[in-house]
């Protein structure tokens, strides 16, 4: 099995690497902090030879395009791509390429990575694309004229929206690439005790504080993603949303064809300048 994963250097990403490395022929850590990735590899002495580090900055679409190029030079196929990285940010920040940071890190960077990596995933017997969403998607309030919330930003609303986008993207992948043997799944890892949200402000920071005693460990939070990567699933669950290793019911908006088509068209337009760079 060959796996590529973003967000591998902390939290549930690290736990996924530890659990999946023994099962892999090759593993690619797509990360911004290369030192932390190498430290992680050093902690897995039995598997160091099969784990590679590739620089990937999801806030920089040019970097993501280069990541995909490097990945295609290192392997002819992938079995699993895990879009694991994500974050919530307290203030509106526009990237150097003109995108709202929450949207870019949680959705658009992964959209480009997945799009460019598709030839590796559709070769041989097909592949899986696993994206980390959240129950926060139920609080999404999408403005169809402002998908990135550049004009009406709030930290939690931006995060809730992108977690809904993860679900819409997953369903689109299952629809568009099912004939090419692509499986796509989204998941809620649980409320995990990590450094997630430590920069948050106001009510969300307060809610995180209240939730701390009830949070699960990163190892527990990684289990659904590990399950999806390693188990053969019912074809009827393709495009589905999972919690606690089981298919779950997402919000009504997550099933909206209008929203997923709108998101796909918008995202594809945003990545057009980077497609020729691969």
Polypeptide structure, described:
The chain has helices at 11-20, 34-42, 61-74, 101-121, 155-177, 202-211, 218-221, 223-230, 257-275, and strands at residues 2-6, 26-31, 51-55, 80-83, 127-132, 182-188, 241-243, 246-248. With 278 residues, it is α/β, with parallel strands linked by helices. An eight-stranded mixed sheet has the order 3-2-1-4-5-6-7-8, sandwiched between helices. Helix 3 packs parallel to helix 4 (101-121). The two termini are 24 Å apart. The mean pLDDT is 92.
Largest sheet: 8 strands, mixed
Structural class: alpha/beta
Give me the side-by-side strand order of the main sheet. Answer: 3-2-1-4-5-6-7-8
Q: What is the helix tally?
A: 9
Q: What is the overall shape?
A: globular
Task: Give the N-to-C terminal Cα separation.
Answer: 24 Å
Mean pLDDT across all residues, rounded?
92
Strand content: 5-15%
- Our Rg estimate from Cα atoms comes to 17 Å
Quaternary arrangement of the chains shown? single chain
Low confidence ranges: none
What are its keywords?
278 residues, 42% helix, alpha/beta, 8 strands
Ordered list of secondary-structure elements with their pairings:
Layout: E1 2-6, H1 11-20, E2 26-31, H2 34-42, E3 51-55, H3 61-74, E4 80-83, H4 101-121, E5 127-132, H5 155-177, E6 182-188, H6 202-211, H7 218-221, H8 223-230, E7 241-243, E8 246-248, H9 257-275
Parallel strand pairs: 1-2, 1-4, 2-3, 4-5, 5-6, 6-7
Antiparallel strand pairs: 7-8
Helix pairs in contact: 3-4, 4-5, 4-9, 5-9
Put the structure in a nutshell.
The chain is an alpha/beta fold and 278 residues long.
